[in-house]
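Worked Example 4.2. Consider the chain below.
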Amino acid sequence: MSKGNWLVLSSANHFLDDAKDLCELQGWYYQFKGMNSVPLKLLLALNNWEHWRKGELLNHLEIKNIYEYLGSNVLPGFQKGKTLHSDEKYTMQDCKDKHGLTIDKVWYESFEGLDTITENYIRNMRANGETLNRNPRIIMSTIHGAKGGEADKVLLMQDLTNAALETFSYDPDELHRLFYTGATRAKRELHVLDPKDFDRAYIL
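Applying the procedure from the previous section yields the following C-alpha cells:
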C-alpha cells in the first residue's frame, strides 16, 4: 500500500487495527472512521512552518494555527495572535520582532506537546512523500460504511465476528451481499487478505 489510493475494508472495525499499525510503522497517511491518522490542522501548521522558515509570507490565520502548537516558544500575551492583522502577511522575522515568536528551528524542535511516536510518524510520512495537505490516500472502513465509496485499489479482509458467523449459519445470503459490496468497491485492483483463522472467515 506504499503507493496509490486504497480502500481497506473489513466486516468490523477491530479487524482494521493491524492495518492501522502497519500504516503507522511504514509512514503511510490514512483515515479511519472519518478521522485522519494525524489531524489536518497540525499537518498544515508544520507544512506552513517549514515554508515560513524558507522566507515565505503567511497570513494571520496560518500564523495563529502555528502558534497553537508552539507553546512557550511564543511569549505570553502573543499566543492567541491578537496583534496580527487580517489584511497583512508576515515573515518569520516580522513575528520574531513584533509578535512574540522566539524560535525559528525545524518543526520537530519548535512544536511543543508532540509525543515521540507522533513526531516519528509524521517525519516518516514526509520522508515517504505522502501528500499531507489533503485527505489521506488510504481510507479504512467497514464494508457497510463504504457503500457508495470506491477506490482504485481495494484490500478486502475476510475475517468474521462471532455474530456474523452465527448469521452465516442460517442466512448466508446476507454475507454474500456484504462481501459482494466490498469486492465491487475496487475500480482497478482487488486484493484479498488471508484471514487469521480460516474457520472464522468468509472465503472468496
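Residues 40-128 form one domain. The first helix runs from residue 17 to 26. Compare this with Example 4.1 before moving on.
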